[in-house]
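step=encode ok
step=design start
structure_in=
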């Protein structure tokens, strides 16, 4: 049975589209037939991360407006034959697609794909409401920074109000040394604030930037620690029990600093 997953975040720049691309490639590497739908109309970037920007003929708006069928707008990945992208428009705005349009499209695509993954615009405006409408599961991406976590908490609340009960968390760009010093939120802090099931903890890794610039998701890079984290995320989505890497314990002075901040 096809599963529809929306990947969302409370703010931009936390790695939502990078996460979409890597999960899509990872699922395709396992033999699944995967469609990625970019709903960030006006600000599309998923095509760049997949190296498909020069192969786009039609877009999401062409499909939902009835100009072309969805299979004509799909772009097949160059290296992964079972991965397809449905890009969105760079010139329209997010009101060009409504929730009913996306629900109908996903219902039509279910028969052809094992996974449909929707890259959601950041924030809680109309684009967010459209992107989450058809989803069976929502993955919230955040970073271990208080503003990003606060925005993620707001997104989780909005998902609850939309009756989306299957919500998972991915924490991106974790720097273990900063966590150890008490300069970055650790997973215990984040879990206490958000209280949802975490399926991914992705370390900060320069390889992500290099892979993005080449249009090759980092999950395919064997020596990348972020790539390995995304492989683990895909494994967990497929039902595997994979333990998390445990970051170094908080240093004595950092712990002391935390205690004093709580007391005063």
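sequence_out=
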């Amino acid at each position: 049975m096809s599963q529809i997953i929306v990947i969302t975040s409370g703010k931009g720049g936390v790695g939502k589209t990078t996460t979409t691309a890597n999960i899509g490639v990872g699922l395709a590497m396992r033999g699944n037939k995967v469609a990625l739908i970019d709903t960030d109309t006006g600000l599309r970037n998923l095509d760049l991360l997949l190296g498909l920007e020069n192969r786009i003929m039609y877009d999401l708006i062409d499909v939902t407006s009835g100009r072309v069928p969805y299979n004509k707008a799909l772009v097949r990945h160059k290296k992964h034959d079972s991965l397809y992208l449905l890009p969105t428009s760079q010139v329209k705005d997010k009101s060009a697609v409504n929730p009913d349009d996306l629900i109908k499209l996903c219902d039509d695509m279910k028969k052809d794909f094992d996974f449909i993954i929707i890259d959601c615009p950041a924030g809680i405006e109309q684009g967010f409401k459209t992107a989450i409408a058809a989803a069976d599961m929502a993955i919230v991406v955040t970073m271990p920074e208080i503003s990003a976590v606060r925005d993620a908490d707001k997104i989780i609340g909005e998902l609850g109000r939309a009756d989306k009960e299957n919500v998972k968390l991915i924490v991106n760009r974790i720097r273990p040394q900063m966590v150890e010093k008490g300069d970055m939120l650790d997973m215990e802090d984040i879990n206490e604030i958000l209280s949802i099931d975490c399926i991914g903890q992705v370390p900060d890794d320069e390889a992500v930037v290099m892979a993005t610039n080449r249009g090759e998701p980092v999950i395919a890079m064997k020596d990348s620690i972020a790539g390995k984290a995304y492989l683990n995320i895909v494994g967990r989505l497929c039902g595997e029990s994979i333990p998390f890497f445990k970051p170094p314990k908080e240093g004595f002075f950092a712990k002391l600093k935390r205690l004093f901040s709580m007391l005063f």
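step=design ok
step=annotate ok -> The longest strand covers residues 167-174.
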